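Regression report. Comparing outputs from two consecutive submissions.

Submission 1:
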Amino acid sequence: MVSSLPHPTTSAGRDGLAALLARPDKAVVALDFDGTLAEIVPDPEQARAHPGAVPALAALAPRIASVAVVTGRPAGVAVRYGGFAGVPGLEHLVVLGHYGAERWDAVTGTVQAAAPHPGVAAVRAELPGYLDRIGAWPGTWIEEKGRAVAVHTRRSTDPQAAFEALKEPLADLATRHGLVLEPGRMVLELRPPGMDKGVALAEYVREVGAGSVLYAGDDLGDLPAFAAVEKLRSNGTPGLLVCSGSAEVPELSERADLSVPGPRAVVEFLAGLAKAVREG
């Protein structure tokens, strides 16, 4: 184990890190964006990758099989907010946006996307009036995410109470239009079924033929990716699960092999990993 890297607290995590360091050319490093590479901010449109994220990834990416950013954001938005395009060292970075429904490849600079689910357009049109009718809490607001729609409660006078009050009616609305409700950190997202970070990650790991996988996330939406890594481990592919912060989402930190206090620490870990791989 490299002394400059934090030590995973589980044997499975230690095995995953050891496998990555032993054969970095077979490793996939997959990362959520918001809360992992970028700080959570009141306005999601103002989120940007930590200043050290791109340099750390550019140092790491050429020495491993692949880096993938797995996010609920549109792929193009994550690329812009991350500053990933045209960076030497990130030529083969992949962004799996909208939980895998969109894919941006740095090598081509283009986005590939599946056809949108018709329920999203229906919900988008109905949601403002629906929130008015159910008595939405002051300060809640709607985020347009292209292939999904989200209702944020973080700006409300009582964010947790608003979050709890809106869960059931928004779940009903999602079901009525063939969508699912995905709770997050003071956000409720209505999106198509069959789209989650676990599906996206598992498919990408199979595509690459990875010999090990690291996944880092911070929110409830990352639980399917954690489950995907746990399944890969049960089938013989070593993996390391990293939780970025733990105060708001103990469900994630309790399953992680390693917890670090937010995006700055994630970036420091990635930089340390790049150094460890470089030094062999």
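Submission 2:
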Amino acid sequence: MTTATPTREEQRVQAAPAPAGQLRRVTRWWPAAALAALLAAPYSSLPLPGLLDGPIGSAGSLQLLALCLVFGALATGYDLLLGRTGLLSFGHALYFAAGSYATDVIMIEAGLPFGAAAVLGLLFGIALAALLGSVSLRVSGIAFSMVTLAFAQAGSILVERDPGGVTGGEEGRAVPADKLPASLVGIEHTVNLYWIALAYLVVTVAVVHWAVRSPTGRVWEGIKENERRVEVLGLRPYGFKLTAFVLAGALAAVGGIVHLLLTGGATPQTTTSDFTLSLLVMVVLGGSGSRWGPLIGGVLYTWADHRLGDLAGSDSVAGLPSVLRVPLSQPLFLLGTLFVVVVYVLPGGVARLPQRLRAAARTRS
């Protein structure tokens, strides 16, 4: 009996560490590193030219970072429907706006403190998601998408019509400073709002991760792959889809409350179907159905939305020839171009980039 002796080249390859394995070990710990950086952000005076207007710890930078965190969390919750259960909803903005407007109206009209108003606003958002979800989920596919779009449009029209003067119409409704805790009012307290936004992100990611790993989450995956097969197994997809719908609506309502604090009021722009389409772009940009993709997409989209808007109105663009100035002065054109480039270069979203790098490393090795 003989044994094959490895060649010198095979021994060298076996002894050398695999590039793909090294890359996997590096990318495994990036969420913890990102969280540590976010925790340290308010204490940093490091400038990031081109990325932020001032030092990381300045009020303006923290405000932008807080908005990025809120929309990253909101996209993560929305992916419970799109990426995990296969439900394409065009009305998710309605529950974000419900939490914002309900909290605002309760504080002003009922005179309740912010804490009690926020709890009631959250309960209103959950009840609205349960009610409209129970109706919308009676149909499936494109019909479901159209029903959710109809509900969202109805909500947007209701807000703009300003019934009883409670929504503020097209101008929205600001929250009087005396209705909020003193620690959440003023530029000097922007860091407190940042901590709230970061807490919302952490809670949302934890809830979504727990839900996806639960037995219910496995049923969601089965519904996305083949709903008829789930029915054959003796399960009722309707109840599981409604659970995902209500949970995503509840997380959106919390996001609306946090957004109310960050912006100082409720705005009608958050009720439109365009807002939900923005969420859809965030999820696709980051990577639908992945653990971190929607979060990354939400952060990148929100940052680009603000920074490209500044670029579009800058003197550099104003001095260009009209053939370049006209398209570059439109932030939506810049966002759309960026989105097309990312989707074309990185199919599957930004979250798939580490997998592509590992595949390239294995190919080289």
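Expected: both submissions complete independently.
Actual: both completed, but the second showed a warning that disappeared on reload.
Relevant detail on submission 2: The chain has 17 helices and two strands.
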